[in-house]
Design a protein that fits this description.
447 residues, alpha/beta, Rossmann fold, 2 domains, six-stranded parallel sheet, 19 helices, 14% strand
Length: 447
């Protein structure tokens, strides 16, 4: 197949067998990060990329990697992968593994995914046979390296994905251990949703003379998503979420909470009212997490209630609504959350519940996205005290309608791929600064 059929731009530079897979995946036009990244990566340049999940980042680095491996025509060697991709959670690692399989469907490239929370023997057997690409979470990778099951001395391309999340989860020491075992001569790719000081410091220790690519996440999120905030007393949040679910347009809904026990409580509240729901967080076993995600993708479950860390790697193209049951502490997390309902060019809806103690979080979010999120004053649990707590003036929500040409894209469960899995690594004790933030209502913190 002529690779022009997979679209113009940088896709035309792909090998026919890779272009064919891109075309079969339904992609014709490269996303901004793909257009900016692929040419430099095909030349073997190191890269620092700043982009949220959902911008096409995985394909941006995976397509050039597959092209490199296919052109190289080198056989696999037991225990010695040629490409190492490090991801923070099992869900994201599994999602990346699915991308390797999808884009490499017409190539001889082999891969495997290793993560904690499940038995290691099947993973070890696959590695012993030899793979081109190894996708791993830090904890399980270090374990298998220390046991002699993985040798990183032959790695030619190293990808560190979602570096900011890695640091949040306390993986810095594991990352340094991994880097120390890699060959100095290699191509290195470093991706992060934010570029705060600790992330920049880590990138400088990893990358040499890199190309910089930055995709601003707030632009697509704000343009395509109808947002609103509902001020509510904390004790009325369960009543409010049941009232919101009375809207028949809520087809497939992702609900975010800060704490694991809150996710369980919200899930039970929904189920008692006959709403099909499942929770996904660090206290859930791997089998339960995988089943919950699969049921959500297939439509068997209408609402998936998740903590932020466990939600990494949830890649479903037909989420109709995101509900922030708890406001996120970090304003960037808000962009990441609501972006889950605007995948693959679709539009979406984002609803945020804000109690008085969370008002300052909302203020920081609005500063970041540079808009005042419209306020719904008509819901039955509106709380003036919460709206006026420590806050700037709030604007009532106007009646919003999307342009006729902007319609939500529905994607079949089969097209969305298999369900993912995430890291079994527990977080070490957090810094005093982060602990203080947790006492103010922060996340439970484990995967």
């Amino acid at each position: 197949m002529n690779n022009e059929k997979c679209g113009g731009g940088v896709f035309a530079r792909l090998l026919p067998e890779i272009g064919r897979a891109v075309s079969e995946a339904g992609y014709t036009t490269p996303s901004p990060i793909q257009e900016k990244s692929i040419p430099s990566l095909l030349e073997g340049r190191d890269m620092i990329g700043c982009a949220q999940t959902g911008t096409g980042k995985t394909a941006a680095f995976m397509l050039p990697i597959l092209q490199f491996l296919v052109k190289g025509k080198r056989r696999v060697v037991s225990k010695k992968p040629r490409v190492l991709i490090l991801a923070p959670t099992r869900e994201l690692a599994a999602q990346i593994g699915d991308s390797v399989a999808k884009y490499g469907a017409h190539t001889p490239i082999t891969h495997t995914v290793v993560f904690g929370g499940v038995g290691q023997n099947p993973q070890v057997r696959t590695i012993n046979r030899g793979v081109h690409v190894l996708v791993a979470t830090p904890g399980r990778l270090i374990d298998l390296v220390n046991q002699g099951h993985i040798d990183l001395s032959a790695v030619e391309i190293f990808v560190l994905d979602e570096a900011d999340r890695m640091l949040d989860m306390g993986f810095i020491h594991d990352i340094k251990k991994v880097i120390a075992k890699l060959p100095k001569k290699r191509q290195s790719l470093f991706y992060s949703a934010t570029m705060e000081a600790p992330v920049v410091k880590l990138s400088r220790s990893l990358i040499q003379n890199p190309v910089h690519v930055t995709i601003k996440a707030e632009q697509p999120a704000v343009e395509r998503i109808i947002q609103k905030v509902m001020f509510v007393d904390k004790k009325d949040k369960n009543k409010l979420i049941l009232d919101v679910f009375g809207n028949k347009e809520l087809d497939r809904v992702l609900v975010f909470t800060q704490m694991k026990h809150v996710a369980n409580r919200v899930c039970k509240t929904l189920e008692k009212q006959g709403i099909r729901a499942a929770a996904i967080h660090g206290n859930k076993g791997q089998t339960a997490r995988t089943r919950a995600l699969a049921d959500f993708k297939s439509g068997k479950v209408q609402a998936l209630v998740a903590t932020d860390i466990a939600a990494r790697g949830i890649d479903v193209n037909s989420i109709s609504h995101v509900i922030n049951y708890d406001m996120p502490i970090e304003p960037e997390t808000y962009i990441h959350r609501i972006g889950r309902t605007a995948r693959a060019g679709a539009d979406g809806d984002a609803i945020s519940f804000c109690s008085g103690p969370e008002r300052s979080y909302l203020n920081e979010i609005q500063k970041l996205i540079r808009i005042d999120i419209p306020v719904d004053l008509e819901h039955p649990f509106h709380c003036e005290q919460s709206m006026n707590a420590k806050g700037a003036s709030a604007k009532p929500a106007p009646k919003q309608q999307r342009p006729p040409s902007s319609r939500r894209k529905k994607t079949s469960a089969a097209a969305e791929g298999r369900s993912g899995q995430s890291s079994g690594k527990k977080r070490p004790p957090r810094s005093r600064k982060r602990q203080s933030r947790s006492r103010k209502g922060g996340s439970s913190g484990s995967v």
